Amino acid sequence: MDRGEEDLSNPIRPYLAPLQLRQPSHDIGSVCEIRHYERLKNAKGETLLLRAGSNRARSLQTPRDDWSSHAALIQIKEPKPRDDKDPEITLEIQSPHMKLAMKTCIPQFQSIDIDQKSIVLQGEPQCIFHYRHELIDYHQKCAENNDKDAADHVRFLLDHMFKQLASEVLHFHQHMENPVLQPALGYFNLWMAFTPGDLIYVGSGCAGSASSEPADYLFKLQSMTRCRCPKTWCPNYSWELTGYHIDYNGEDFGHVYHYTKIQPYEGLKALQDLTVIPLKFHPDNAVLKEKFITRGKTFVGLSGEHFKHCKGVARLLKGTRTKTFLGEDDYFDTRLTHINSRVFIDGKTFSEARPTHQPTIVSSEKSFRTELRQHLEMKDEEYMICDDKVAGYSLQHHKWGWFGVNTIQEVEFDDDAFSCLIIQPKFKDMMLSLVKSHTAETNDFDDFIKGKGKGLIFLLHGDPGTGKTLTAESIADYVRRPLIRMDMSALGSSPGEIEESLTATFEVARKWNAITLLDEADVFLEQRRNSDLQRNHLVGTFLRSLEYFEGVMFLTTNRIQSFDRAFKSRIHLAIYYPKLDKSSRKEIWELFLERPGLEIEADVRDSGFIETMAGQNLNGRQIKNAVSLARSFAVSQGRSLGQQHLETAFAAMTSFETDFIRDQPEEDNDSVNNNRKRQRT
């Protein structure tokens, strides 16, 4: 084929001509002009850049010719996507004056090297709109300084933006800059109110929030995007906001990515009616600033280890992992739970125990090293975007999780509980002295093998309801230390899971200087038998764990006769809790009836009535339940607690006890009777 013939089989070919490279007659980007191109592909799949409305084209790799190199702006229309989206527009800014203005006025370009490359904007020139006031001020300063070229170029850039966004700017002017009306925008124009770098307020319980926490919070906006396709059912049709908040990973504070969404809506909507809104448009922004500064300082103050009380909604991690594909990290599902219990705040141990849930600090953003005390030098805006929750452990639920900063309170210790404990004074003094003097660091008297035998193990045995559990609880309160309860439901089912849970629990107890309570420890302490290998494994696992336990542990049981002999040498002090006699029961009745906040009738104070109740064969837990049940009866009637309420509660409990014994199998009744005979002897 002759060179002059046209290849009609290639629809793009007729527009292609041999490229004549010439040296530009002007400096790059020196002329206030805009050149338009379209990006296309030829039959070979090669990407070409075609002059809009011209028969000249060039490949992407070809240097610019004189036609475009001097232009301040180059606009490229990208190929139309297959999913009916509008074609993207790319704006390349070549003008040195424009690049300097943008570097000066727009934060995202402050670190760019304007001498080496152009500034490229994808899509609408949103950043120019967002910083139009700064660019206008820059233009005016250039004009005042008689820098005509710079002033002309910045003016040309602003004119281009206003032309491209003419309808959007008109919409913004009518609904956002009207002094009479509340600021409002249509859904598609929401981006105009959200400037990168703004502090964004997210209302409590926002459905589009990544965390959906009950507390409101702030984050710093980085970008705001949505799918441009016209299909409203598209999962990316919502506005997605990306930004940062400040979190703590147990070592340092730093910026962490944050994501939230704004769902579509019809027509205009006032910004203050949105659950996600720039803080500057919120009617109570001044009050909110003070609120978030205060909360941020509290958040920072909760770094390290803190024994606290939490009353409110917490997000707790479930105890079992969700298995994932090979090569992916397992994670723990979460659930919102209302708690009113003691917690231990410890971000570092949380990250060690649940590493897949620790916050990932963005290395390119500012961080605060705690060892250098940089976190104590945060600015107010940095305090404002601190996380609204802290990581820790719920001592009641036996679960790791996050607790709202505003739900954290000081622990109210019950100082009277230990003094009210019904036990021989010599044992009370002995236990208290041992616990107060014992820490893993000060206990240097250990086994011949380093790390063994440094624990302090108490065994409390006796009938139910005699005060064994209360002893551990009251001592922990008296010495102001956390109490970690262990039970089979939290430890797992298989020997392997139980050993892993025991090791983890003992380790956090050591770190937090906590007291450990294993209530109803019979399953771990029972005599091993040749016929039950799984139980033998469980008992052996617990024995081995006790060897290296370094803290204080209370074991309670009412079945000491079935103990494995190997435990005898592991117990430092064993205390027997005998069945309550009448004087002990009377003392317990008086203690519960004199509890603060309990309103009682005068007839309850009658010594004869209390003597009568003390004569009933109840243990301490049953007495507590009777008073609690009677109080509920009284409250339901709107009255103070009287004799009638206590008698009704006692009758209900007695009826249940009778039914319980009657319905037991015959062999169980024989066992009960034998136990009673053994206790009498």
Number of domains: 4
* Strand proportion: 15-25%
Structural class estimated from helices and strands: alpha+beta
Outline the low-pLDDT stretches. 1-25, 57-63, 674-681
Q: Please, how many helices?
A: 21
Per DSSP E runs of 2 or more residues, the count of β-strands stands at 24
Helix content: 25-40%
**What is the first-to-last residue Cα distance?**
121 Å
Using the alpha-carbon principal axes, give the shape: elongated
Rg, rounded, reads 37 Å
Task: Round the mean pLDDT to the nearest integer and report it.
Answer: 83
Side-by-side strand order of the widest sheet: 3-2-1-4-5-6
Domain AAA+ ATPase: 454-581
GO molecular function, one term: ATP binding
Region (Disordered): 661-681
Keywords: Hydrolase
Description:
- The protein is α+β, with helices and mostly antiparallel strands.
- It has four domains: 152 residues, no CATH class; 230 residues, no CATH class; 139 residues, P-loop containing nucleotide triphosphate hydrolases (Rossmann fold, 3-Layer(aba) Sandwich); 71 residues, Orthogonal Bundle (Helicase, Ruva Protein, domain 3), CATH 1.10.8.
- The protein contains 21 helices and 24 strands.
- Helix 17 packs across helix 18, helix 17 packs parallel to helix 19 and helix 19 crosses helix 20.
- It is elongated, with a radius of gyration of 37 Å.
- The protein starts with 30 loop residues before the first strand and ends with a helix.
- The relative contact order is 0.06.
- InterPro entries: AAA+_ATPase, ATPase_AAA_core, DUF7025, P-loop_NTPase.
- Keywords: Hydrolase.
- GO terms for molecular function: ATP binding; ATP hydrolysis activity.
- It comes from Thelonectria olida.
